[in-house]
Amino acid sequence: MTNILHVNASVNGENSNSRQIASKLIARIVAADPSAKVVERDANDAEITALTGETVGAFYTPEESRSDAQKDVIAVSDKMVAEVQAADVIVIGAPMYNFSVPSTLKAWVDLIARVGVTFQYTENGPVGLLNGKKAYLVVATGGVPVNSPADFATPYLKQVLAFVGISDVEVIDASGFAVNAEEAMERAIANVEAVALPSVA
């Protein structure tokens, strides 16, 4: 059984282009593996908040030494990390806002990038601990071409995923919705149909 984590970051809910396209990709994966389980995670959930000094302090406090208050502070982070750890496939719907990722998606990243949990520091530099996973980035834009010099969302997400050990990443170009929404959706769906599916163990 394939465990799929769908991270949606658009503020537009069900009307989101990135969400619709990501859902089509997930439907294709599930069609190939009907036993697949999908966990939906909306980065706009109120429980996902920006980092605070208290949160970072709890992250760097050894687990056995954390106070009850510190455990409470990172409870949401623990839940986000558990979802990522359990996933075989991660599908991130990433609309481009002002050339980069939404602040809510950045907040999600900050909660799952945990030293000693999803990555560790070694004498040879940081090493990711979330190995053996496949990730898809559905990058939706109004007019900025994906992977162009003005696209800071795609390289950022690829860097973050590699940092925590996920190097098998495929990008689905869903650009140009502000130019011609109908054509952009047609191209994006074609890209979904063309992308390689994860192998089923």
How is this structure best described in words?
The chain is of the alpha/beta class and 201 residues long. It is 38% helix and 20% strand. The protein contains 7 helices and 7 strands. The strands form 2 sheets. It has a 5-stranded parallel β-sheet, with helices on both faces. It has a two-stranded antiparallel ribbon with strand order 4-5. Strand 4 and strand 5 (125-128) form a beta hairpin. Helix 1 packs parallel to helix 7. The model has no long low-confidence stretch (mean pLDDT 96).
Report the portion of residues in β strands.
15-25%
Structure summary, number of beta strands: 7
Distance between the termini: 8 Å
Query: Low-confidence parts, pLDDT < 50 over ≥5 residues?
Result: none
Helical proportion? 25-40%
Q: How are the strands ordered across the major sheet?
A: 2-1-3-6-7
Main sheet characteristics: 5 strands, parallel
Counting DSSP H or I runs of 4 or more residues, the number of helices is: 7
Shape: globular
What would you call the quaternary organization? single chain
* Rg result: 17 Å
The helix/strand series, from N terminus to C terminus, equals EHEHHHEHEEEHEH
* Chain-averaged pLDDT: 96
